[in-house]
Amino acid sequence: MKPFRHLATVTGLIVCLATALLATAGDEPRPKIVFDNTPESGVPREARNQAPGENDRPTTVPKLLGDSLTTVHVHYFDTKTWKNQQQVSQYIAGLIADPDTGAYTRQGWSQTVAVPEIECLLTFKDRTEGRLLLWRTVGCLRDGNGNWWFISAVDYFHRKHPLGDRTWVHPVKPSE
Fold it and tell me: In degrees rounded to 5, what are phi and psi of residue 149?
């Protein structure tokens, strides 16, 4: 009877292995799924590689956008800098209306940028979409035509940003 006892153990092992193989035989390899709520780091590649356009003249963000925006959807903001959504909303609304916030077709700053403090998706009246990325004193804006603009907002940052140094602010120009 002893030889049959080993046979039962071996048979049990074979049944276990066969069951495991059959259970996974129908499974296809699955990709690893990762969740990351932060935007990608740096200036978008398509902005850096943008060819010179017909309109290479500097402008301001309010002139660039005019009244074309219908929605600014804040996709991400750094909660270490910003206390709440209302603070972010007020900052963005002021930035896109600030007459001193410049917009350029070429990157005018030399510092590298990492993950933006704020990332927004923009919806325009003609139903096109754009994007707004902000890093402290600089940013990138993709308009409804797909053109990228590089933003310089040094004064606005120092006047309105929670980390701004109010002693660096130039006096506000009187309205004309």
Answer: -125, 140
- Interatomic CA distance for residues 122 and 115, integer angstroms: 19
* C-beta of residue 105 within 8 angstroms of C-beta of residue 88: no
Query: Helix, strand, coil: what percent of the chain each, to 5?
Result: 30, 20, 45
Whole-Å CA distances, 163 to 80, 146, 156, 160, 168: 11, 31, 11, 8, 12
Q: What is the CA radius of gyration of the chain?
A: 27
Domain-wise residue ranges, the chain: 54-168
- CA dist 40 and 61 (Å) reads 23
The one-digit pLDDT tens for each residue of the chain (176 residues) are 555 555 455 555 555 555 555 555 556 778 888 777 788 899 999 998 888 766 567 899 999 999 999 999 999 999 999 999 999 999 999 999 999 999 998 888 888 899 999 999 999 999 999 999 999 999 999 999 999 999 999 999 999 999 998 787 766 666 55
